[in-house]
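Could you join me in thinking about how sequence relates to backbone shape in a protein? We need material for that, and I hope you will provide a protein of your own picking. Label the sequence line and the structure token line clearly, so we can match residues to local backbone shapes. Would you write everything just below, so we can both look at the same thing?
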Amino acid sequence: MSKHEEILTYIEKLDIGKQVSVRSIANRLKVADGTAYRAIKEAENRGLVAVNDRSGTVRVSVKGQKRNHKLTFGKIAEIASAEILGGHAGLEVEFSRFSIGAMQPESVKKFLMKNSLMIVGDRKDIQSMALHGQSAVLVTGGFDVDQDVIDYANEMGIPLMRATYDTFTVANRISHALANELIKKDIITVAEISHDHRPALREEDTVKDFMELMKRTNLSRFVVVNPHRVVVGVVSMRDIAHKSLDTQINKLMNYPAVAKQKMTVASISQKMIHEGYDIMPIVNKDYTYAGVVTKSEVLESLQRSQEESQVTHTFSEDMSSKISEKGSAYTVMVEPLMVNNVGNISSAALSEIVAIVVQRTLDKRRRRNVILESMNLNLMGTVAIDNLLEIYPKVINETRLGAVVDIEIYYVNNIIAKAVVNLQIT
């Protein structure tokens, strides 16, 4: 193993949040500073480390790993616009919970735990107690912090921060950030469902090579790459049917769209369904081959994310909770957040109401995997706050692969909106 590879292996084994520097690597592994520097840059390109303005270069989670809803102390500092007074080494550590130290020291003890955050004012006793209990400390109000408290935070690598905002504002900001991170957790990315090691064909390969690879892997669709591993096409069993064994793949392949690992599954699902793609190549930043994602896995992941969702604070879910069923119709009371700046119901709220009613209508017919393809919405009257709307859906055409739903919306027996929605069913 070369020195370069040895350094990369060492970095890969470091704990998440551990600081990495040229000098520490050079001293520990007995290598030149230049060798350590080049290896650290390679680790950064691979996503093993990241450069943080406050804490320098630190070990981070590999890109593409399943995200979680927890925030790091470094992010908390950004959210609270806080100054880092000490404990920089712990900024990339994820915190578990936060508490407000507005109580007697005896009562504070039961709230202290490793990797938690204590929000406190100018109470030195609470600040010190929290740090000794392995809790990070965020001092609000911009109060001064004694040097011995800062020194202990540095010694233990536990973040000590100071914000000029009051305690209520800081706590509110952190709560809001936690809710947002929880929503982001439920958004599935391509990297989380892709097949990273599925074999690919070269553009100079032949139908014979395709048949051999299919026999070896039991797969019938493959990505095609050029000598630089850049994706140039996709070929399937249907493309090679009735072709001679010596026919080159580059004469038979198709040219589908590609996806990148950070794209959301929702963003590629409609493209795959609309274009009829069974697989979509996944590429790196330089468009080299990184893996594939299949249509069946995309649909399964979207359905699973709906069933396993841990949040009820998205706009869509808030709107859905306000829509009630009334026989063959649905009702919704117009609330202040649903109207625009002139007091009429907003097009966004009305469109979301229509989409939710359409989904529920198809759910009743046991057609769960539904993709909204287009919506033609016409507002024919004004709708104000506290108006009770009645929505009447009607499926006017339904096939195995699609449906058309007509929607009429009434207020006190007057029609105020009509919509026609086209859907794909998978």
